[in-house]
RNA sequence: GGGGGCGUGGUGUAGCUUGGUUUAACACACUGGCCUGUCAAGCCAGAGAUCGCGGGUUCAAAUCCCGUCGCUCCCG
């Protein structure tokens, strides 16, 4: 089952509070979904994620298909059971991997042929098999197979990718057998306004329970992304969730929420964490920097997460410098808390009818940093 | 006392035999930056040694020769 309703609409912006109901419970939007690409949010346990406030996590069809493989997932009775996460899961289709692992893929209209990055074995994924795999994984929200293109890129190529994604989307929808999973369509079109419109309108014609916007944050300038995103949203129905794929830096989050985006995912908070990047209310810092050698203050003086309450910068810097895993855990913990807190503050502001002021203050602060 | 080996950036090494692609290379450490549907405990960049010291041979020496100091191993 999947149900989405808009509970509150902001008066001055297009921001909104929504409620999504899935087979594994309810979550409120806007929501940030941490990445559990291979069936784990790197370094963190499901119990810890719940404490941090994560409500939905993201698995990846391509990676889980290769390892542990569908036989294992089938016997484990699905990904939820396998990884001990009983809240909602969204699985991405693997479309992004066609883009990010480009050299190992060959695309044609039928599907995608690729060589396993693990053992070099040959595989063929089609819209149909991608749905089959996601039905075995059993996520609450699943994604169509799409073709994400790089930026900048030739318009003719984008048009082909848009048309192919539309074709694949229709085939995914047709292939779907299980009824308790929400299959989301994906709008592509790179930075071409007319192609975004075409992609959005045709995808909406296929009638999905939710719509994602793919192909953003692939290297284009910030203003260009929002310039294309805003008008594209006009072609998506207001009563369905909108998911901006791959975007997760804090200012873009708030800005996108004001345009009516409901869902986000991003590798940034957790990946940055493992490399010493710390999100703080006073801007981004790199905990590896020498100036934190004897800094015994918390990562973020204005944060009250478990990590900031109990550990200091000097210690975490030390852990990272000597290669201790706890550093990655503590930093991932903090960064995810930071992003989820921003979402929570945003939601409070919408509920208090003060979102517009909140947004302006937030973006001004980010600009000054 | 006799004989051998070794001394090159912070650390560990390469180069030396057959002097000249050496503006001395590499790893780690160090300094900074990057990371946006995660092949990412990753990637990029930077600083840092005139080759133990002195002399000699040569157009040219980290590289060959002599001396010297230090460390080290073996014999006594």
Keywords:
15 helices, 369 residues, eight-stranded parallel β-sheet, RNA-binding, alpha/beta, three-stranded antiparallel β-sheet
Give a verbal description of the structure.
The chain is α/β, with parallel strands linked by helices and 369 residues long. Helix content is 43%, strand content 17%. The protein has helices at 46-52, 61-66, 70-75, 79-83, 95-100, 127-137, 155-175, 193-205, 222-233, 250-258, 268-274, 306-310, 313-321, 325-351, 355-368; strands spanning 2-9, 16-22, 25-29, 31-33, 57-60, 89-92, 105-107, 112-115, 122-125, 141-143, 182-187, 211-213, 242-244, 263-265, 277-278, 285-286. The strands form four sheets. The protein has an eight-stranded parallel beta sheet with strand order 4-14-13-12-11-10-6-5. β2 and β3 form a beta hairpin. α10 (250-258) runs antiparallel to α15 (355-368) and α11 runs antiparallel to α14 (325-351). It is globular. The mean pLDDT is 96. It binds one RNA strand of 76 nucleotides through α5, α11 and α14.
